[in-house]
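README: folding subset

This subset contains proteins for which both the sequence and a predicted C-alpha cell string are available. Records are stored as plain text. Below is the entry for mRNA(cytosine(6666)) deaminase (224 residues), shown exactly as it appears on disk.
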Amino acid sequence: MAQKEETAEAAAPTSQDSEDLENPEDPKNLKELVELPPFEIVTGERLPANFFKFQFRNVEYSSGRNKTFLCYVVEAQSKGGQVQASRGYLEDEHAAAHAEEAFFNTIMPAFDPALCYLVTWYVSSSPCAACADRIVRTLNKTKNLRLLLLAGRLFMWEEPEIQAALRKLKEAGCKLRIMKPQDFEYVWQNFVEQEEGESKAFEPWEDIQENFLYYDEKLADILK
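--- output ---
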C-alpha cells in the first residue's frame, strides 16, 4: 500500500499490531497466517480467532495482510414474506480469484427471479478495481439483489482508479460503509471460532474507534 499523508483534519490511525492479545505480528504467528497454498479459495462457517485479529484489524498499513476475508449473510425473501438465511466466510490468496469474485462464482452463482436477495458482506478490506467492476456488473443485471458492503479498511484508497471504482459501486446501488466497533464485535460473535463450551467476549483493540473515524472520513470524501 502506498504511503498515506497525515492531515490536520484526520490524523492517520496507528497500527499497534504488537499489542494483539495473541501477538499475531510475531514472525512465527505471521508465517502461520499468511502461508497457505496458492490458488486456493477457503470457505467455511467460522474463521480462526487469530486470523480475525490480524486480518480484520483496521490498521492503516496492511503489511502482511495479503488476503481478503469476506464474511457474508444472505437473506432470500419470497413474495409470501418467507425468508431463507445463510451465512459463512471466504478467504482468498491474491494470486487466485479474489473473495468477492469467488462469492458470486461459488456461493451465489445464480439468483432466483422469484426471490428478493439482501446480501451483507463484512470484508477485511474494500474491493480492488477489478472486483468492484464484477460487483457492479452483477448488481446491474440482478435487479432483485441488494448488497451492503462493510469494510474494515480501505484498499489503496488514494489511487484514482480505486476511488472511481468505489463511486461506481455506489452508483450501482451498493451501500458502502466502514465497519464500526460494533460491526467487528458482530463478526467476532457470529463468524469467529469460539472455544468449545464457552463464548469469549470481543476485546476491541485500543485504536479501533480512531481508525474507524479515519477511514469513514476518507470514504465520505471519495463518495461525494
